[in-house]
Amino acid sequence: MSAGTGPVLVIVALSIAALIGLVLRFKVPAFIALLVVALGTGLALGGKPDEVIEAVRTGTGQALGFVAVVIGLGAMLGGLLEASGGVAALAHRLLAAFGEKRATWALTAIGIIVGIPLFFDVAFIVLAPLVTTLSLRSGRRVTFFALPLLAALMVMHALLPPHPGAVAVAELLGTDYGLMVIYGFACGIPAAIVAGPIYARLAHGAPGFGDLSPPPRLNEGAAPIHPIGFGPALAGMLVPLALIMLAAVAGWLMPASPLRQAVLFIGHPFSALLIACAFVALWLRFVSHASLGIISDVMTRALAPAGLMVLVVGAGAAYKEVLIQSGAGERITDLVASANLSPLVFAFLLSAFVRVAQGSATVAMVTAGGLAAPLIAAAGLSPAQVALVTVAIGAGATVVSHVNDTGFWLVKQFLGLTEAQTLRSWTICSTIAGCIMFVMAAILWPFA
Fold it and tell me: Cα(273)–Cα(286) distance, rounded to whole angstroms?
């Protein structure tokens, strides 16, 4: 699939407009709209029918190979914690400890800490039931609590190792990892604060930001279970996070050995979530004395909304893959490269353009890092300036999460938002975070 730069940009813009129109104006289900637009875009960009079908199959398969398992296991864990009152106990303790006014700041801190070792989607799926229950208990819109968590997770995913995009850019540019972490926190924490609790407080009452209807619950209609309590519920939520963090540390520090392989195995999201589900289910069976039938019913019911989430995320990945194979990112790269810009601005704009065109933050970062590497090498930048260019690339890859980003659909489905509400809340949140990261990098640039 190939075409000139101008036609590619026009087709990509029209495809995004068509997708938004189908979903918002004509109320076509997102799963159908994404598949239709993915197929139409691939053909419009000159792809042969079999190539377009293969791109759709590849994109869906790559996403669902990981996301489907994580969503399914995460939904069952969340369903068990919800049905047993575990998430409600956590929410009550959090609100009691910090107060409703400070709960958003607590969620930002949680997102920063958890977001260092965990992929964005894994951490959000594990913690989403907590956000939902806080919303139900406080009577506030779910976005009021979700955006602080999401902003922090997203910023850490874009700026810090061991996340793949950040590591790839650091290797391409020769970034010092110590400086990368220092400047990542210096630029990322203000971005998480502004895009998270501050933006949520200022905008959550605006029209179209989300209604006050209850967000989706994973145990809807399930038989009640004796309350599990705060301690076991906290352990059930922390088990997968702790195991995945342990695996991340082992990957950095432990030498190759059978012990290291074992730690990496149990710390994989699949294994960690399975262990967490088993822990909660066994506690409910032998301590809370819930019947096996009730436990099975809760887990089965939790998979029903998860199935829709999986389909939408898979279709979004198919659309993204068509855009990637069309060469849209490469064409945009050539366009930006022809402009005479400073390394910091060049890196940010290039990454942002690729992100908007094809949706994947990691692809945008790798693309921008690969093209910026020769420029950085020739510019004679200091190690600190190279680290700030790395931040700028992560910032550009964060902005405008919209309908071609699988994260957009993940947030929409888990929070029970409409497409318009997701655009007004999550898309703006991601754009604010990316812009603040870039502004912070620009402020620090003269001193680097």
Answer: 20
Burial zone of 151 (CB within 10 Å; 0-12 exposed, 13-18 middle, 19+ buried): buried
CA distances from 132 to 5, 88, 139, 145, 227 (A): 44, 9, 11, 8, 18
What is the number of other CB atoms lying within 10 angstroms of the CB of residue 172? Answer: 19
Strand extents, DSSP E, 197-345: none
pLDDT digits (tens, 9 = 90+) for 32-58: 887 888 899 889 888 889 988 998 898
**How many Å apart are CA 72 and CA 109, to the nearest integer?**
26
396 vs 391: CA distance, rounded Å: 9
Q: Which amino acid is at 371?
A: L
DSSP 37: H
Running DSSP on this structure, what letter comes out for residue 224? P
- Cα–Cα distance measured from residue 318 to residue 321, given in angstroms and rounded to the nearest whole number: 5
Residue 362, Cα to own-chain centre: how many angstroms?
Answer: 11
Nearest by Cα to 200 from 98, 328, 102: 102
Per-residue tokens: 126? 């594990």
Two tokens, residue 340: 């005479």
Is 431 a residue whose pLDDT tops 90? yes
pLDDT in tens, 246-263: 887 888 788 889 999 999
With residue 150 as reference, give the H or E element that holds it.
helix 142-159
Q: What is the residue type of 151?
A: A
Q: Vertex 160, ends 91 and 354: CA angle to 5°? A: 105
Asked whether residue 323 carries a pLDDT value surpassing 90, the answer given is no
Indicate the average pLDDT of the chain: 82
- Cβ(181)–Cβ(159) under 8 Å? no
Determine contact, residues 441/187, Cβ cutoff 8 Å: yes
Place of tokens 């420029």: 375
Would you say 281 and 287 are in contact if contact means Cβ atoms under 8 Å apart? no
Give the SS3 label for residue 408: helix
Contacts of 312 (CB under 8 A, 6+ apart): 30, 31, 34, 409, 412, 413
Indicate whether this model's pTM tops 0.85: no
b/e burial code for range 11-50 (CB count within 10 A of at least 16 → b):
bbeebbeebbebbeeeebebbebbbbbbbbbbebbbbeee
Q: What is the pLDDT of residues 394-423, one digit of tens each?
A: 999 999 998 878 889 888 888 888 888 888
Helices and strands: H and E segment counts in the chain? 21, 0
Which regions of 78-171 does DSSP assign to beta strands (E)?
A: none
Distance CA 138, CA 85 (A): 16
Residues 6+ apart with CB under 8 A from 218: 75, 78, 79, 82, 129, 301, 302, 305, 306
